[in-house]
Amino acid sequence: MRDCSLAVTSMWALSFKLGVEVLAAVRLEILKEDIKTRARLGRLHTPHGMIETPVFMPVGTQATVKSMTPEELEEIGAGIILSNTYHLFLRPGPELIRAAGGLHSFMHWGGAILTDSGGFQVFSLGDLRRISEEGVEFRSHLDGSRQFLSPEIATEVQMVLGSDIVMAFDECAPYPCSHEYARDSSARTTRWAARCKETLGVSAGQALFGIVQGGTFKDLRRESAAGITALDLPGYAVGGLSVGEPKEVMYEILDDTVPLLPADRPRYLMGVGSPDALIEGVMRGIDMFDCVLPTRIARNGTALTRFGKLVVRNATVARDFSPIDPTCDCYTCRHYSRAYVRHLLKADEILGLRLMTIHNLRFLQNLMREIREAIAAERLPAYRREFFVGYGYPL
Amino acid sequence: MRDCSLAVTSMWALSFKLGVEVLAAVRLEILKEDIKTRARLGRLHTPHGMIETPVFMPVGTQATVKSMTPEELEEIGAGIILSNTYHLFLRPGPELIRAAGGLHSFMHWGGAILTDSGGFQVFSLGDLRRISEEGVEFRSHLDGSRQFLSPEIATEVQMVLGSDIVMAFDECAPYPCSHEYARDSSARTTRWAARCKETLGVSAGQALFGIVQGGTFKDLRRESAAGITALDLPGYAVGGLSVGEPKEVMYEILDDTVPLLPADRPRYLMGVGSPDALIEGVMRGIDMFDCVLPTRIARNGTALTRFGKLVVRNATVARDFSPIDPTCDCYTCRHYSRAYVRHLLKADEILGLRLMTIHNLRFLQNLMREIREAIAAERLPAYRREFFVGYGYPL
Hints:
The structure is a homodimer.
Chain A: H1 5-17, E1 27-33, E2 40-46, E3 49-53, E4 55-57, H2 70-76, E5 80-84, H3 85-90, H4 94-99, H5 103-107, E6 112-116, H6 119-124, E7 129-131, E8 136-139, E9 146-149, H7 151-161, E10 165-167, H8 179-200, E11 207-212, H9 218-229, E12 235-238, H10 247-257, E13 267-269, H11 275-283, E14 288-290, H12 293-299, E15 302-305, E16 308-311, H13 331-335, H14 338-346, H15 350-376, H16 380-391
Parallel strand pairs in A: 4-14, 5-6, 6-10, 10-11, 11-12, 12-13, 13-14
Antiparallel strand pairs in A: 1-2, 2-3, 7-8, 8-9, 15-16
């Protein structure tokens, strides 16, 4: 992987040991702010490498980006991935990953890792969980066993994982939900974020990101942003969006909320990965995104292409010997035809899932690169228009 | 893949066009004959590269070695793979592969390909098939549709696939079976082989291998070998073994049959891939092997190691951070622990199947390399002893 990663880690560790907190574990260097939109071009410095922003982070829920090796992730251009505290907490468990020397070592990944806090998954369990001020009791989806996560435990687990970016333990309120529910929930998320900060302390090489909640209520979003940013954290996420609300509602919330986040810190929009929302998010000032969409639809046989989604399973491509996307430079498009990939998918062959996943992830990496180039060239709105027209999105 | 493959193919094609059959499409160059055993060290020259023998061929049933890319096959050292006529005949069908420019192009594999004839699969269908002198009528395992394969059709399909080695359409008699059944069946297989030869003609770049049958009856094996070798084919296989009979019976048949095959032609033992049988087969004069064993048990969570089989799914390796086989140089063993691979298998992650498959295939490639080195050093019996002791096989 990256030979320099150990040296970089040591340097960061050293700066903390000396008590000279000259550098945060994770820091956003802003190269350019767009004049036409709120987009920013930057470099996210982490203990495991520098990542150009805006960036899309592939999701590696169970300590693996489904079907991919770390080398393949590097080849498609990924420098940072997301992994899930909830899943790793239950299986294989933090003690095993501690014994393995942390998540990077366990999964052989030399790039940066952001771990979510488990909040999203726990709250998705519905009837299987019980919330208190202390934390959340829930039943494991694996074996039904009784489990408990709190801001302290979720943070401690992430400290064991050794992720570069630790997400605060939050409640992601459902959509729709009442103003009262959203208010109580986001206020608790703010109190919990303070406990996460207290727990992490100045853990060398790890940065805590707070999460703004508040549902689709602008007043609550503002309250939440004020409370979370008051904690002076190295980064901020917008959570609780892309959970079923119309995209216009998400864009409105972003229009309203993002300007409340400090301009010098990275901003991360959680759970967003459709091409249109990536572009719209960047234009509203977002630097980081993650989503299971590209990998999940890949395994279902749907490819992202410059010309819209292509259902590679469909009979229409059975005798189509062109690449999935003729404009794509990924391993799949360089070497295989739609007909072959379709054959693999129809025959339930693992290589089919791999080739689809490689393509979709590379497609989003290329999209993000083009977005960055468009910001640099001060033509992001024009790029949006061109991309939307090609993809078939309404303008 | 291999940039030279096109040039080589053209050269072979040319030699046939000129009517100068100076080179068979596939030819075995024998480098050394062991003095203590019947083992031979050689080079199999094919239109898609030279392969050192004895060789184990990974199985790519549906135009893909399960979970592997062609580049990964090259990395583990595979120069020739097997693919299955029966499966490709049914899906995606020969017409699609013809349109793709043949199987090599369809699946992006620059190495050599041996295709079986479909006989083994068709005869495995039991009640779903009806045999006549003309061929076999059967029902597809995919959709129950009525299908027909004959020596001519099986050969024509393989001509479309463009495999380097075309296997004759044979009947693999079940074990056990009566002397009468085995006699009629192997006699028909010999008549069918002549029809396959007639059908292939001097197809440029393709070599037909005949298959010796005869069940576990030495007299029938001798008759079959006499009939098949009378066809003067570029290679011969021993079929109908490793179908349930005790290994000692297989070794006895090999002791008796292999000497009847011409020494200057490659000899292929079908469906054998356990480490002991590979070594025993080589000592009895076999040059080529194939088997789904390494890839199939990999996906079930069992690894081949120098110290015997390791069930990586077992709880005993849950906290074992050593590689699957500390003596192995494969990608998996270089970068991952047993604990991580077990985690992936338990979590049903595709990467787990990939890492296991890479390891098992590399293990057999290394075994075959060591066998070749032992032949070169004239110490194959000693190597057998050492390997058997380490693996835990009885001597």
